[in-house]
From TrEMBL:
Residues 1-20 form the signal peptide. Pfam families: BatD (PF13584). It comes from the Bacteria. It comes from Patiriisocius hiemis. This is BatD family protein.
Length: 590
């Protein structure tokens, strides 16, 4: 019996030793790489296996592989075996990623690799190597952000032109994909997109001949002074490049490769508007403007209406300030103005006209002067303030009732004769036609029994309402859900009001999402990227699916500025925003 047990133990130890000798691991060429670099990952085993299953490679695109390599050698009679599956990956965006487990079956047992953390940073400069297609492509295409002025004044227009320079010996089509979209924090921005209608120009890049296309022109108006950063535009560009191999006819073989190019960050130093010489009525207008105040009539009768128009015309930040308001005599009734904008935005900035139309109704006869109105603006070209003034306008009301001031004549005694009319007091009734009021005993009357019985009837109602209130207070989950939904609709109320206007809607929606995080986390989110927001929410135990939904809505707000959006899509985005804010509020731990 002891011998049999010894054999079992010996067999178990041998099997365990064989089991421990199996090795299956994942190795990466680097744990930190730039957005324009490639990553090689090898899954290596020391025994042959079956049913190899790679990970999903989330956050990366597979550009090569699987390549299989087998090494089988004998050294001093000892066998050495190695089998490797290799993949080549390119990152899709910046961030921290985890390459998951790969699995394989060896002798009926399943083995898995450990997850590997990889950090993807901004695009980096690559060293030249003639045998690497990615490196061959690195000098063939360049993305440049040309800024018209790097030191503008506050609210002065600047233009960012994104140009892609392509070498003449490679071919690029228009199916590139944006990986990172520029962020214009603290800027008013509008894109002039050329997608689908590109024109090829001849030019030079660093002294060499290139072709280039203008991908996008963006007009910016800085809303804050100091150093402001423009996040880079990053593209994944498919291209065909020549290799070092030749065809039988002597030409170079060409292969397709995807190249990630980035325009790089740009820093804008925004100067404050000078305090010296600033007019008291200056309201933030920056540019070059003309100013006019006019009416459609100056002579009319009381209770008739006229229109007064205040116009500002020219080039500058027309959408970012209000025309000067008017001050009228109290006898002229004025209504809220109607604002009309005829503003176009081109590569040099905003230009056109803004106009406010007031409807005015005089109440009394007389002459009413409208005093001159002033309008001040700052001209960045002359670096001086300019003040424009309108002409005085006199409104002549010919017919209508007189005010007490108008009834005063130029006679020396300053008195008017009092004229009585027989109809002057006809509204006063001289015969009242009063009738006696019948007195009814209060005791045992209908009113008596109503006042006596009503409190008794209200007691069971109060008891019922009290029980329902206790049940509602005890429903912690329900109260939390209702509170979260009210909070979501509170922040999104402005966006809901602008469902008919795409640009205003998505601006309000994005601002609501940032204001919600600002209120919840007590942070400034306007200067944060999506990775930081994701980490902050994850630290407060918000689920990954909810975080992804929140970031997806933020991306929708950014993309919707450059792409058309239907009312249905806007309503869906609004509903998704309500749901995600509600979910965050239910999950977040403060």
């Amino acid at each position: 019996m002891k011998l049999k047990n010894f054999i079992y133990v010996l067999f178990f130890m041998i099997a365990s030793s064989v089991q421990a000798q199996v090795s299956f691991e994942a190795k990466v060429s680097k744990n930190k790489l730039g957005l324009n670099e490639r990553l090689r990952i090898d899954f290596e085993m020391n025994q042959d296996g079956d049913n190899f299953r790679p990970p999903s490679f989330e956050g990366f695109r597979v550009i090569g592989g699987p390549n299989q390599a087998i090494s089988n050698s004998y050294i001093n009679g000892k066998r050495s075996y190695s089998k490797t599956y290799s993949y080549f990956l390119t990152p899709l965006s910046k961030g921290s990623y985890s390459i998951g487990e790969a699995s394989i079956e060896i002798d009926g047992t399943s083995y898995t690799t450990a997850p590997i953390k990889v950090q993807v940073t901004d695009a980096v400069k690559l060293d030249k190597d003639g045998d690497n297609l990615q490196e061959l492509a690195s000098d063939k295409v360049h993305l440049v952000a040309e800024v018209s002025k790097t030191s503008p004044y506050l609210n002065e227009a600047i233009t960012v032109v994104y140009k892609m320079y392509v070498s003449r010996d490679v071919t690029v089509n228009s199916n590139w994909r944006e990986i990172d979209t520029p962020k214009y924090a603290d800027f008013w921005s509008q894109n002039i997109d050329s997608r689908g209608n590109y024109k090829v120009y001849d030019g030079k890049y660093k002294g060499e001949d290139y072709r280039y296309v203008i991908l996008r022109t963006t007009v910016l108006y800085p809303q804050k002074t100091g150093k402001l950063e423009i996040e880079p535009l990053t593209l994944d560009v498919p291209m065909v490049v020549p290799t070092n191999r030749r065809t039988i006819f002597g030409g170079y073989l060409q292969k397709r490769v995807n190249k990630v190019v980035s325009a790089g960050k740009r820093t804008i130093k925004v100067k404050p508007l000078p305090l010296e010489g600033r007019p008291d009525d200056f309201a933030g207008a920056v540019g070059s403007f003309s100013f006019d105040v006019s009416t459609n009539k100056t002579t009319l009768d009381a209770n008739q209406s006229l229109e007064l128009k205040v116009k500002v015309n020219g080039n500058g930040n027309l959408k970012l300030f209000d025309p000067p308001s008017i001050k009228l005599p109290i006898a002229l009734e004025v209504y809220e103005p109607e604002r009309n904008e005829n503003v176009r935005t081109n590569a040099s900035g905003m230009g056109g006209q803004i106009e406010e139309t007031y409807t005015i109704v005089p109440q009394y006869k007389g002459n009413y002067p409208i005093r001159p109105i002033t309008f001040s603006y700052f001209d960045p070209k002359t670096e001086k303030y300019t003040t424009l003034s309108s002409e005085e306008i006199v409104i002549n009301v010919e017919n209508g009732p007189l005010t007490s001031e108008a009834n005063t004549t130029s006679e020396t005694n300053g008195k008017q004769p009092v004229v009585l009319s027989q109809d002057q007091f006809k509204y006063i009734k001289l015969s009242a036609n009063l009738t006696p009021v019948e007195t009814v005993p209060f005791f045992k009357s209908t009113t008596f029994w109503t006042l006596l019985g009503t409190p008794l009837l209200l007691i069971p109602i109060f008891i019922f309402v009290g029980r329902k209130r206790k049940e509602r207070l005890a429903d912690v989950a329900g109260n939390k859900t209702r509170k979260a939904n009210r909070l979501a609709r509170k922040y999104l109320s402005e966006a809901k009001k602008n469902l008919s206007n795409k640009a205003t809607f998505y601006d309000a929606l994005e601002r609501a999402l940032h204001n919600y995080l600002k209120a919840k986390l007590h942070i400034e989110t306007s200067e944060m990227d999506k990775d930081t927001i994701s980490n902050l929410l994850a630290q407060r135990e918000v689920s990954k699916s909810t975080i992804d939904s929140f970031l997806t809505i933020l991306k929708s707000c950014e993309f919707a500025r450059y792409t058309p959006a239907s009312t249905t899509a806007m309503q869906e985005d609004y509903n998704s925003a309500v749901e995600v804010i509600s979910n965050i509020d239910k999950q977040i731990v403060l």
